[in-house]
Structure formats: C-alpha cells, structure tokens
Design goal:
single chain, Beta-Lactamase, elongated, 29 strands, 25% strand, 23 helices
C-alpha cells in the first residue's frame, strides 16, 4: 500500500470534502500527499503505522532514532519485536482497531536495552483501499521530575514515589472500614487505564463492577477473612479485573494487615498485585495441551509406553490384559517382565535399531498376562527426545497393538490351507491313478483298432473298426478333459503344447463322442465344416477340450431339436487389422436357453444356473475353464441366449481360436514309407495285452525286438545284449521304469530310451526327461506315433 495513501487516509478519513473538478482535485491531492509526507518525515514525534496484526507498515525517522534502526529495517516486523510493549498496550491497540476509536495510554518502555522511558501512546485507526491500519504516536514523558536526583537528596515521600514508579507491581493500601484505597501505585493506571483523579477512587463498588463474573464470588470471602486475620500472615488471591477498554487482566495479590482500629478490627491492609495475564495464558495453553495428550493416551485403543534405554517403563497409559499388578505400579518395572523369554533378544535388537535412528521398527511378540494366556502384540518403536531438568533425555516411545485375533485367524488359515493342499494332493494322486488305469486298457483297444485297420477288411469291417478307433480316441479326449478340469481346480491349467493337427478331424472325433447320447435323447447332432485348412498349427488339446465341453452342455440341456457344431475359417476377424488367421467355432442348440438374469454369471467358477438339477448341473467349472483356456491362448469366447434373438430359447456358444499355418506343406507332412530298420528294440511292458499290441505294431514296422516285463528282466537283457532303442513302461511290477534308465546312464549306456506310460501329466513327462530319457509317448500308443519314434532312432538302410 502506498505510504502517501496511508498518511492521507490517516489524516482525512473523518473529513468532508467540497466537490471540485477532477483536475483541481488531483492537483490538491498531490500537494496534500507531499505535505503529509514532509510532515511524517520531519515530525519529532516517533510515529508507527501498523496493520491489524500490529506489524509495522512504516516508521518515521523519529521512530527509527528511538529504536536505533534504519527506517527500512522495521516494516514487516511485529511491534513487540521492536519494543517490549506490555500486553496491556497491545490489547489497547487491538481494541482501538476493532472499536474504530482513538485510544491513549501511558506505557513505560526500556529503550536500547537499558534506559527506562515513560511514553504517552496515542493510537488512531484509519482505512485506505478498504484495509484498516493504525497510526501510533509515542510521546516521551518525564518519568519523575527528580528522576536523576540521588536518594540522599530526596525526602521519604519522594523516595516512596520513586520506588512505586519503578516497581512493575501495583502497590496499594486499602481501608476495609471505609471501603476504598488509601494509596495506589501508578502501575494501576498503566495496566488498567484507570485514573483515580479523573475517574474516582478504587472502592468495593469498583471491584463489584469490574471483577470477572467467575471471580466475583471471591469478593465476599476476601472481605470476610480479615475478621480473623493475623498480623504476621500473608493472604494470597488470584482474580481478573477489567480495564477501561473492556479487556480482562489476571492478577496475583499478596495482602497483609497494615493497621487496626481501636476495637482491634483490621482497618487497613497493604499489598501488591502482580499482573500474570501472560503467565496464565501460557499455563492455560499448557493445561489444554496436557489435557489433550492425556485424553489421547487414555482413550487410544492401544497401549502407549515410554521406556528408557534399558527397557524400564517410565510411562504407561493402560493395558488390555491383567499382568497381576495395577497398571500404575508397572512404571519402574522392566518391559522384559511382561514379554515371553524367547522374544527378549528380538526386543533388545528392536530397541537398539530404534535408538540408532532406523524407521518403522516393528516386531511381533507374545506377552505373559497373569491368567496364563499368551496374547500376540505388535510393538512399534521410535526414539523419544525431550528436555528435562536442563538435560536432553532420549527414551523410546512404544505403541503396542493387540493382534491376537489376527494371529489366530492366520493360524487357522494356515491349517485350512495345509488341509486343502493335502486334499488337493490326494485328488491329484487319484486322477493320476485313474488316468493310468484307464489308459492301460484303452491302449489295447486303440492298438487293436489300428492293427485291424492295417489288415485286409471289407467296407463294413473297415467302418466298424474306424468307429471303434474314433470312439476310443473320443474317450481318451474325455479322460484328458477330466484331468484338465482337476488341474483347473488347483490353478494349474495351461493351454498345452502346440502341434500340427487337422481341425476337421478333431471336430469329427468330438461329434463321435456324443453321437450315442444325442441319439438316446432324440436329438439330431450335426457337424458343419466350411473353408477349413487341412492342417493348422495350434493347441489341439485345448481346442478339443473347449469343443467337448460346449457340446456336452448343448446335448445335456436340449430336450428336442438339433445341436449343431460349426467350424469355419472366416476371411478376417471383425475389428482386427492384423489379418491373422483364426478359427470360428460355434455350438448352437435349440434348448430352453439361459435366463437374462443369469447370462452374466455363466463363466463364474462353480456357478449353478436355474436349469440345474441334482444330476444335471449347468456351467459350473466347465465354462469357467473354457474361458480361461481360450483367453490364455489369446482367443475369445461368448455365450448368446436366446438365439436367435427373436426366439424364446436356444443358445449359441461362439469361440474365436487363433492359430498359425504349419511351416511345411501338406505334401511334406505326409509320412514317407517306412523302409527296413536297422538295430534291435527292447520293449519293456508288463501288461500282456499291451505287449501283444506293441509287438504287432513293431512287426508291422519291420522292427526286430525283444521283450521284458519287469525292471530286473530289462536290466538282464541290457547286460546280455546290445539294443539301439528301448521302449520303457514306467509302471512296472518291481519298480519304477526310471530305475532302468538311471542304471543305463550311470554305466555310460547311451542307447535312446523312450518312455511309454499311461500317466499323462506334464510332471510325469518332465521327470522322465530329467531321469535321462530321450522322448515320451502317452498311452494309448498309436501306430503313427510309434513309426515316428522308430524312424527317428532306427535309421533305415
């Protein structure tokens, strides 16, 4: 704010102006501002311009001389920072601003740190640009006329006057019988602004009018106690008096009997009153802070401790558990007394780390209440530094949280998790055994079907053998699906390994699996293939699993009508600019459809729809597993119902399945004729039917072979004869087939070994390869798979 504006406002805020033309007015304003500036700078009176917070906006040279500072060094500083003014003066200045009235008060100041000077302070409020400020004039007054005279040159009355002027306390003599002051020191007027010559003596009525209402009841008690007062006793009292501006000041008084009347009653008392407003304010702040901290510590839902560097408790707010002694008596005891011994080393380490300045020092311990329980407590430690008795004390602040319920829950969850893992392992072992037990006879069935198809059959016989073969493959696919779903429950689903396969052939196998069930339910099961490549590269097992699950649901929930399987290769995928190929798989049925309220839940794990019955569950893990498999390969799946949209029923399951084309052409993929083979094969197989099938397949391939049925027979054969290939079953009567290959590798026998097992899990394949085997064939073994193995390891002539 411009200084001239401040000065102009201070001097003219209450004056009325005569209207004049703008040019004349601007000229006059400029001259007036210049005159005010000269007056401000040349005035012998120390002048301060203050804002509402009593911070200096500007001082004149006289004020700068009074402070012995440069005029530019004062702005922005608080008045009390420059002058040790009393709270009475500061309160009066604030009162002048709030009441918008001029005040005048006497103030004794210590100038330049050593000279005591009496000032008459006049404060005038004003406004400029809608901002209020205060202009204060400090006029020096003589402290005493004979202030510099030695005490020896003064009479007793002058000496008393000098003393009362010098003492900041109010000295007084009060006549109890007349009810008024006989003597009153000048400090009374300096503090409260009351001039006894102008405003009258201090009487009991004055106290009745100006004593704070909360202290007024003490007045009668104060007057009554002098009836029994002793001459040598000092009486103390604390109360608040209102000054002439309406502000209250705290006083602490000390009174004593000064004289008695002829009848022995106390006539006059002598005393001193010390203003303690600032001290009371600080005390109230401290009490409020103490009360707040006490409320926090007593009401906090945690235990708060202060311990010293040795772990001795210095403070404790409360404890949740009973430790056999009152909480107040625990102060002075070691914290180690209440913590189980096995945690003592950890507690000491945590204390050392906290004292060293580490952040977030926490540890979990168990405490030892008197009832024998062992609750869990989380301790959080931090250094606590404060001043006490002039010294710096460094202790530790400890917050203790009861975490017993959480720990009990964690223990319960660990127990349940262990039980679930045990159950999961049991289920896995069951499915591994189931897979082995089913694949072993299926190996014989599919092997015989393959062998039959290699013989001379008429058309009817060939068709029957083909149906036998396809149905067997479909059953194996169903088994694979069951195993995959069990792995899904354990969170182990993986899409599988990609390979080259015929999508049309895969769809025909899936249809064959449900042809009988559809016929029994009176349904027509249709397969529509359109624009399919002969072979593609992708995860056949995953696509087969999805197709089988969707077809199973469609057949299961369709009472009449048609179930249609469609497999096509569209030109492009909608919204996909890459143009990468994909298969469109659809399974459509004419069943009752899925209610609109349930369509968004069909992919939820274990979801049971309204169509579910005790023997006929919907969706469940199957659709959830399908979604996870399809999305795991970058595909998409959706269920639409009703379908078509204008019908009351029907459901369409649509899958977009990405793939790539094989790296070799179809002509290159055709198997070359199997020529004569060199070398001899050791077939290790304990099941007689599987032996027969494998032997016939080897004979058809033109391979020379020997057979063993146990681990010992296999070892004996390997010791006595040289073989170029070992076909090794893993589940032998006298041990694990891996024993054989480990024995071979330990003796540097590097003959290729191919595992032939009914165990289909990837873990089985991995463990076989780690044991030293060269390849892995899963039962049921196909003629084509065996021929590939023979061509790989037994070179033809």
């Amino acid at each position: 704010m411009n200084s001239a504006v401040l000065l102009d406002s201070a001097c003219s805020c209450h004056q009325m102006e005569t209207p004049m033309d703008p040019d004349s007015r601007n000229t006059n304003d400029s001259k007036r501002a210049e005159m005010l500036e000269l007056q401000f700078k040349n005035s012998p009176v120390a002048t301060f311009i203050l804002d509402r917070a009593l911070k200096v906006l500007r001082i004149n040279p006289a004020a700068a001389g009074m402070l012995t500072v440069s005029p530019d060094a004062a702005p922005g500083r608080h008045l009390r920072e420059l002058l040790a003014v009393s709270e009475t003066l500061a309160s009066s200045l604030r009162k002048a601003l709030s009441a918008n009235q001029t005040v005048e008060i006497q103030e004794e100041l210590l100038i330049r740190g050593r000279t005591r000077v009496q000032y008459r302070v006049t404060a005038t409020p004003a406004k400029a640009s809608q901002e209020s400020f205060l202009q204060c004039f400090f006029v020096e007054q003589p402290l005493l006329q004979n202030d510099s005279a030695p005490l020896n040159d003064l009479d007793p009355e002058q000496i008393l006057s000098r003393i009362t002027e010098s003492i900041p306390a109010i000295l007084y003599v009060f006549d109890l019988q007349e009810g008024r002051n006989r003597f009153l020191g000048p400090a009374f007027e300096r503090i409260l602004g009351w001039n006894t010559e102008k405003q009258g003596p201090i009487t009991m009525d004055y106290f009745a009018e100006n004593l704070h209402p909360d202290d007024a009841r003490q007045l009668n008690q104060w007057a009554g106690r002098w009836e029994t007062a002793r001459d040598d006793e000092v009486y103390s009292l604390r109360y608040r008096l209102k000054d002439t501006l309406g502000s209250y000041h705290w006083f602490q008084t000390y009174d004593k009997v000064f004289s008695r009347s002829d009848d022995g009653r106390v006539k006059e008392i002598v005393g001193s009153a010390i203003e303690i407003t600032d001290q009371i304010s600080v005390l109230q702040d401290l009490q409020a802070e103490q009360s707040r901290l006490q409320a926090i510590t007593t009401q906090a839902p945690v235990t708060v401790l202060e311990i010293n560097c040795e772990g001795i408790i210095q403070f404790l707010n409360r404890t949740k558990y009973d430790y056999g002694i009152p909480e107040s008596s625990m102060v002075g005891h070691s914290v180690y007394e209440y913590v189980l011994p096995e945690y003592h080393v950890e507690v000491r380490d945590a204390m050392d780390r906290a004292l060293a300045g580490h952040k977030q020092v926490e540890l979990e311990v168990q405490t030892a209440p008197a009832d024998g329980s062992r609750p869990f407590v989380l301790l959080s430690l931090a250094p606590l530094s404060y001043e006490a008795d002039g010294n710096t004390t460094v202790n530790l602040l400890v917050i203790a949280f009861d975490i017993t319920a959480r720990k009990r829950m964690e223990q319960r969850l660990e127990e349940l998790t262990a039980r679930a893992e045990t159950a999961s392992r049991s289920k896995t072992e069951f499915f591994v055994t189931l897979s082995h037990d089913i694949r072993t006879p299926m190996n014989s069935i599919m092997g015989i079907a393959d062998l039959l198809l290699d013989t001379r059959l008429d058309e009817d016989q060939k068709q029957m053998a083909t149906i036998l073969r396809d149905s067997s493959e479909a059953l194996v696919a169903l088994l694979e699906r069951t195993l995959q779903l069990s792995r899904l429950e354990m969170g182990l689903v993986a899409p599988g390994r990609p390979s080259d396969f015929s999508p049309g052939r895969m769809a025909e196998k899936a249809k064959a699996l449900f042809q009988t069930e559809a016929y029994k339910r009176g349904l027509e099961l249709k397969l529509e293939l359109k624009d399919l490549p002969e072979r593609i590269h992708g995860v056949e097992a995953a696509l087969m699993q999805v197709l089988v699950n969707l077809t199973s649901n469609a057949v299961k929930y369709t009472d009449r009508g048609v179930v249609t399987i469609r497999l096509a290769m569209p030109d492009s995928k909608p919204g996909d600019p890459t143009g990468e190929p994909y298969l469109l798989l659809e399974v459509e049925d004419t069943g009752p459809g899925i209610p609109a309220s349930e369509i968004s839940h069909v992919f939820d794990l274990f979801y049971q729809g309204s169509q579910a019955t005790p023997g006929n569950t919907t969706g469940g893990i199957g659709l959830n597993g399908c979604k996870r498999l399809v999305e795991g390969m970058g595909g998409e799946i959706e269920i639409i119902s009703p379908y078509p949209a204008n019908e009351n029923g029907g459901t369409l399951a649509r899958v977009l399945f990405p793939f790539t084309l094989p790296e070799t052409s179809n002509a290159e993929q055709s198997e070359p004729p199997l020529g004569p083979l060199t070398g001899k094969v050791l077939l290790v197989e304990d099941n007689a039917l599987n032996q027969f099938v494998a032997q016939r397949m080897l004979e058809n391939a033109g391979a020379n072979y020997a057979t063993a049925g146990t681990v010992q027979e296999a070892l004996a054969a390997l010791k006595n004869e040289s073989f170029q290939l070992v076909l090794l079953d893993l589940g032998l009567p006298d041990g694990d087939g891996r024993t054989v290959v480990r024995w071979m590798r330990s003796r540097k026998i590097n003959t290729p070994v191919v595992a032939v097992t009914a165990a289909a899990f990837d873990e089985e394949r991995q463990s076989s390869l780690e044991a030293g085997m060269d390849d892995f064939i899963t039962k049921p073994m196909e003629q084509k798979s065996l021929q590939k193995i023979l061509m790989r390891f037994l070179r033809s002539d």
